[in-house]
Amino acid sequence: MTIPASIKNIIFDFGGVILNIDYKLTEIAFAKLGLTDFAGIYSQATQKELFDEFEKGLIPSADFRREVKKYIKQVVSDAQIDTAWNAMLLDLPEERIKLLDKLKKNYRIFLLSNTNEIHFTAFSSYMKNKFKRDIFSEVFEKYYVSHKVKMRKPDAEIFELVVQENKLRKEETLFIDDSIQHIEGAKKTGLNALLLEKEKTILDIFT
User: Fold this and answer.
1) What Rg value do the Cα atoms of the chain yield, rounded?
2) What CATH code is carried by the domain that includes residue 180?
3) CATH number where 52 lies
4) pTM over 0.70
5) Measuring CA to CA, which residue among 192, 185, 207 is closest to residue 10?
6) Domains identified in the chain, total number
7) pLDDT tens per residue, range 163-195
């Protein structure tokens, strides 16, 4: 597709847009630990307050693990919780990083992700090992992750934070995400927003 000439800034979601993820793998991993209805407490579309608070950095990882263990009848370790929780995190194809490096020559690009301390640690380590560089700080002009700024999508406040801190004009800014509730939240604040459909990648948008 063709990005309108009026667009000068692009805000990218991370998981599902840049990094490949599969929520089902975490559901399967927790089922093996004895939590058979993980989808009932966490999914791409909705989640219990525990996960919202963890993504906002309002509770530490230790408390998150302890609360998740309450749903599991058998004794499991912190490492098992982390492994199951991180199972959804897949790979980041190199061509997507090359695309972002190319886009930053013509646009101001930013990252806006709902994430948490455990996931952030895991995929940051993965990217440094694979690309030998700090993708967040070197590719993006600025990155925003929910657990560090204490707010999350689709709440208006996090979109306003990105806009105001970087003095962006909303009509010149495009937000790309794979979750419809986040797209709707962005639109309500006045941003242009594009839903990345399943089976599509950001290469399909910009090529």
Assistant:
1) 17
2) 3.40.50.1000
3) 1.10.150.240
4) yes
5) 192
6) 2
7) 999 999 999 999 999 999 999 999 999 999 999
